[in-house]
Predict the structure.
Amino acid sequence: MTLELASTCKVILAGTIAQTLLKEVTHDSEKLNHSPLLVGFLANDDPAARMYADWTAKTCSDNGFQFQLRKVDRDDLEDGLVDANRDDDVDGVIVYYPVYGNRQDQYLQQIVDVGKDVEGLSHTYVFNLYQNIRFLDDEKSHKSILPCTPLAVIKILEYLQIYNSILPYGNRLFGHTITVVNRSEVVGRPLAALLANDGASVYSVDITGVQIFSRGEGIRKRKHEVTEANELTLERCLSLSDVVISGVPSESFKIPTQHIKSGACCVNFSSEKNFTPDIKEKASIYVPAIGKVTIVILLRNLLVRDRHSIFFMQRGIDICIQRIFQNRDERPMPS
């Protein structure tokens, strides 16, 4: 008689985590006197982007938000974004990247009005993320918006209690070693920065090599620093990490399970399956996808942006006043 041992791996589905976060979003949306309008721009034929857009439309519809998907040619996208910026009925804007797949995409990210940016890709938000600045104001009443997918991973780790709530806010990953496989400017790099700013030692692995994101020994530094560690391999990083997060957009790429530390927590944020089925024999917790959590974070950011609108409006007024006085002071005196 052969006895089969029960799996020690707990598989956590994104939908389960999303429902918990959705309660918070629904509670906050009920305080509004209008239904926020989110406009999505699709300028590619990526099936994953289309699926994400369809999920967004359904989640918005189910939870009292308005959503419009505008499919445009990529050469018309810039004009479309400018029109959305000027439209007072539009509360938030999302672009489904990649569009060009090069630096042109970074330019398009800056076209979106910071007051309507729900992806956290505007310069103000990106600067704050890497500088570990968590609020827009000195009073700390307006949180800086973070990119949806990296923040979704953070919320998943909080749900899984990887974050240690006993430690002070901002240090709650202290003691954890995390490998992030993907260093894209949209997801992988900001995710590594966020994790390191929260106290983790992060191995950021990409096709070009390994970088270490860390706040130093004893997390004494205010924000993370990056050091090259090309002597390290993916396999070595996996063996040292108690959390492994992968988001390689390739069907052929697979994380080598045999090198993963026994009992590690593993999260896949790629539209492809970066982990093989035998991950359940090695990991203690496995999250196979995060898409539904990402969409809830998108709605959460939309609500945060709604609260920020008055802040940005006042800041714009203050800048105008400063310029008026500056111009008056610089005006030459009549002779």
Notes: The first helix runs from residue 14 to 29. The CA atoms of residues 186 and 279 lie 27 Å apart. The two ends are 107 Å apart (CA to CA). The chain has nine helices and eleven strands.
